[in-house]
Amino acid sequence: MPVEIALPPTVKTILLTGAGGFVGRELVQLLLAKFPDVSLIATDVGVPPDYGINDENRLKCVAANLCDKEEVKQLFSGKRVQAVFALHGIMSGQSEADFELGYNVNVFSHMNVLSALAKHAESREKGEPLPVHVNVSSLAVYGGPKATPNSRVIPEDTPLQPETSYGVCKSVIELVTYDYTRKGFIDGRTVRLPTVCIRTGAPSSAASSLISGLVREPLQGIKTVCPIADSINDEAIEGMPIYVTRVKTVVENIARAVNVNAQDIEQKVGKTRCINLPGIKITTRDILQAVEKAGGKKAIDLIEFKRDPKVVAICETWAGDYDSSGPMGLGFAVDDTQQGYAQAVADFQETLKA
Ligand SMILES: NC(=O)c1ccc[n+]([C@@H]2O[C@H](COP(=O)([O-])OP(=O)(O)OC[C@H]3O[C@@H](n4cnc5c(N)ncnc54)[C@H](O)[C@@H]3O)[C@@H](O)[C@H]2O)c1
Question: Can you tell which superkingdom this protein's organism belongs to (predicted)?
């Protein structure tokens, strides 16, 4: 079923952070295509892509370091912003390697944005609704005994127990977003993303990067390493399921989150408004089969199986499956479970042709 995407009628200007990143670029393009009358302010540390648009009323691309409060304030000094998609961040591998950078970006810069948005909201016209803030988080907020590769997470029964710095920072900002909402400063909601694939461009610092790397590199004739197994017959190939989403599906789901009724969200997923976006459960075997189908045995031969205990330790903290009946009841979509990962691989092949 296609995802229904609309904006609250009062939304005329949207700020999008992390607009130069993998998901941010796709979201900017989707919003541009869907909402020709809306102004987008796209920001990232470097100036994000403008897709050939020269009209600042349509797309304004701004370089800003969001760890700097003054630079954040500047983003709200022009047009009145009625919605924010907060996507910027430092991914899991780098956050684990550089604790300070991880906290500066994944916690403090998000606090800067929330605080500036709340201030901005104070001067809105009488009767104008609160700005909607879509906080983009991750299923990495889960962990512990109820969120292992063989678990099916039932959100109501599973405490948040992040096992990485990245997951801790994400859960902190989910709660802060909720608190700003509870206080009536903004209309916040959080979407937690499954692993998004196939990630285009260079490998990222996310531990989950291996899931895309097994496809992206071999299908371009480049060698890659599978860090969770020592051979193609290792039991981890079947025994460590992962929960993933196609880029197209997740971007539509993120866009949808801005217009879902707040009361409905609270009713379906709870007061803190944290929505686990739906994904599909796959194994590394599914990935390898999809790669072989798309690129033949020569693609598989480019994969070196070399177990990296550090990567395995992170993978073991990921739940293999989630009950997403609450989010599905809010109109969020899931990938075609019949086609599974093959569809994500087909999408990637399209990007190679483009
Ligand atoms: N890609 C995934 O599989 C996945 C899974 C779960 C959650 N998420 C979340 O989705 C969001 C987008 O992920 P992505 O894959 O596009 O990540 P990405 O790394 O491609 O993009 C993140 C962007 O944030 C920007 N950024 C970093 N520090 C900044 C700063 N100080 N000021 C301004 N911008 C800064 C980076 O330059 C980068 O372009 C992130 O919040 C991420 O945690 C992604």
Answer: Eukaryota
Pocket test for ligand 1, best of 17, 112, 193 (most atoms within 8 A of CB): 193
| Residue 15, beta-bridge partner list | 41, 84
Residue 127 neighbours by CB under 8 Å, 6+ apart: none
pLDDT in tens, 242-265: 999 999 999 999 999 999 999 999
Please, what is the average pLDDT of the chain?
A: 95
pTM over 0.85: yes
Task: Give tens-digit pLDDT for 203-235.
Answer: 776 767 888 999 999 999 999 999 999 999 999
* CA 107 – CA 105 distance, rounded (Å): 6
195 CA closest ligand 1 atom index: 3
82, amino acid identity: Q
Residue 328 pLDDT level (bands cut at 50, 70, 90): very high
Convert 84-117 into a string of H (helix), E (strand) and C (coil): EEECCCCCHHHHHHCHHHHHHHHHHHHHHHHHHH
Among 161, 97, 86, which Cα is nearest to 131's? 86
Strands 195-197 and 242-246: parallel
Residue 138: beta bridge partners? 193
Protein residue with its CA nearest to atom 7 in ligand 1: 138
